[in-house]
Amino acid sequence: MKAKHVKWLLIASTVGLAIGTIYANTSENPSVSADLEDRPVEMMSEPSQIVQLEVPNEEALDQLQRLGIDLTHRAEMKDGNFEVDAVVTDSDIDRLSQYGITVKDTLMTSDIWQERVDERAQALEEKNQIEAEDEELQFLRANHFTNQSETFLYLEVKSSAGELSSTSLTADWEGNGDPITLERKSDFGEYLYHYLSIPIDDVPEQITVTSNLGNDVTAEVTEWLGDDKPGNPKKHYAKEFIDHYMDPHELNERMEQLAEEFPDLVEIVEMPNETNGYRRHAQATLGSTANAAVVVTSEAWGHEGGNDLSIELLADENSTDLEVAVNDNQITVNLETDENGEVVSTAQDVIEALNAEAGDVITASTYRGYPGSAPVEPASADLTDGLSAPDHISREPQTVKVLRIGKHRDGSKPGVLGYAQEHAREWVTPLVTIETAERLLRNYAHDGDTKKLVNNLDIFLIPTMNPDGATYSFYDYNWQRKNMTNHCPEELSDFGARDYWGVDLNRNHSIGSVHDGYVGASTNCTSAVYAGPEEHSEPESQNLVWLADEFENIDFAMNIHSYGGYFMWSPGAYDENREPLPRPTAGEEAFYWSASNHILNKIQDHRGTVILPSRTGPIPDVLYSAGGNSADYLWYEKGIYAWNFEVGADLWNEDEERWERVGFQPPYEEGHEEAMEFANGLIGLFEVAYQHSKDHQPPKSEINPGKGNYDNPVEVGFETSEPATVYYTLDGSRPTFESEVLQLGGTREPAETLTVDETTTIKWFSVDPAGNIEKNYNPLGSSQNYNQATINIQE
């Protein structure tokens, strides 16, 4: 079983494009194989879908590895077989069936993706209709009442724009201080009203409620039922600030809105490395067979004139010369014919002529490495960049933006980073950051716990690390994982390959990289986990490096992904011998588990979702190797405690008694719930960071068994009062930071024990994650207040 487990983990090192014809024709020479000249041009237009594959045996597993299927994050072993989720086409499914690999379940198709797009479009249309109207605010209730020993204020206000979760109402009155955000109440999808229920010291005479759309309404406060109202209202905490999937353009708008509304608590940090942009050169492929095809690419970007170009290949019986003419945006090629009127101009002939005569407008090349030795056919085409986003979506390079939230944003407070959508198709993940930001800002004025976090932390939230790829996923190809930068050579850069270009930003970092021999990524430019031509080649990954360098106070980070319901940390990669990056020390691992327990409890609070223990832990222990991922960079290079969310835990189907996957783009109703529960989790991380910053108590430690006389060798373990790293010596020397460190006993095991088989004096001290040293011992000085114990093994 162990060997099979290793083979499964190695699949991640080769995942890529499922259709072999996308790869360049480097292993065979079409010029010496006549049957290849008639091979059809592969336009790669076959729709993809996400399915659950059943892999029956080791041989089939090997074949899946060789084919390089695009795997999602969802995988498990069951009854000796493997169940994996993958992005495939119908052709892939037919091909896989030859090896006994079958489809157990279809999780998401292009039609379902279109339903999600339509669902989002409807939400946006309703939003625009509401915003186009003049908002009306109506006070439903403005009451005070005394319950037992406490006086409460209760408000209900209805907004005509309340269907939008982005519509926010705040209440203010004389002597109140900061305005207080009302909570939005809805039931079964219907907006009812906004409300506020809080204890107060003094009853105001009147209340003014103001909308973030700029309108306000005032009401007199009246008494409700005297002092016999039973029960205590729940603590007031506003949430539910999202109502549809948001593309990068909308995310930036919401960020700007929050920065404008809360200038004392938030600012936008613009990272220095612009993306390549949501843009492509316009292209066309002329010809129906590979060796006779001509690929044409505009010099200008599509939106800057490339999309206006047309090309036509004409055959005239009297044409004795190959000629190219460029007239405005029209390129015409008169092909050479023989005495019978048959075209003799080959694809290579046409390509050379186009590059010579129209090279300032377009470049021409053969199709996917074929020599172009076959005669072309008359054809015509309009060049296009294939991009479908509406005009208000910019095609230009984008600035990736960070919401920096905190009362003191000067580097004096501990920093916490939450970043999302490294992978473009993961639509839920940006909503986690936006919901979290809204909660922090809109509850600050009235919720003590929120104020504590905002006043004492420096919080960085990045809704989308990959705005170009995310835009492409929303409007062009929903399974897009990577950014849009094409590093492929000419033979892999025709229009039909456009959905397979790009770099996996979570494989582009310098720690545990495929370029250094680690697995879980690829050097093939069409692979779903293409690591890029070199480490940190992409501006998006460079931005994360810049952020960690620029803000050295960042101590904690959460990389937000989907789907599968995983909660993971470093090490995230291993080499071909399954040797992982260095494991955290036993104390560091204990802290990861302790903090994770708090965060996962917060996730569960929303609707009871439990992240399974089998999906919690270091990345290789619960999923697979992910060479060059960003969390490893933050942990190993910057010393930042870094986790990875995989939102979208499986849902239990009571009727069918089985777990069901949710996918990258579930119905918004489910996506909303995932965003709510993982926003809880992100705030749980902030609570961990806050408690960490307030920890000034040194740890305590002891050994078990303790000092004394023993007849036989003993296994000595260390026990600490809290997660702490133990430094120790066995040779009688004074322990320092250069001494041995207590490590884990093994994968998913507790701390190691020390085998003592001869009389030994153990000297040690412990350090907790906050840097507190046991007994305030100074390992760098000459003090002697470390722990020591002698284990006397009697002969």
UniProtKB/TrEMBL annotation:
Its cofactor is Zn(2+). The active site is at residue 646. InterPro entries: GH29D-like_dom, Peptidase_M14. PROSITE patterns: PEPTIDASE_M14 (PS52035). Gene3D superfamilies: Zn peptidases. Residues 1-24 form the signal peptide. Keywords: Hydrolase, Metalloprotease, Protease, Signal, Zinc. Residues 366-689 form the Peptidase M14 domain. Belongs to the peptidase M14 family. PANTHER family: PROTEASE FAMILY M14 CARBOXYPEPTIDASE A,B, SLL0236 PROTEIN. This is M14 family metallopeptidase. It comes from Piscibacillus salipiscarius.
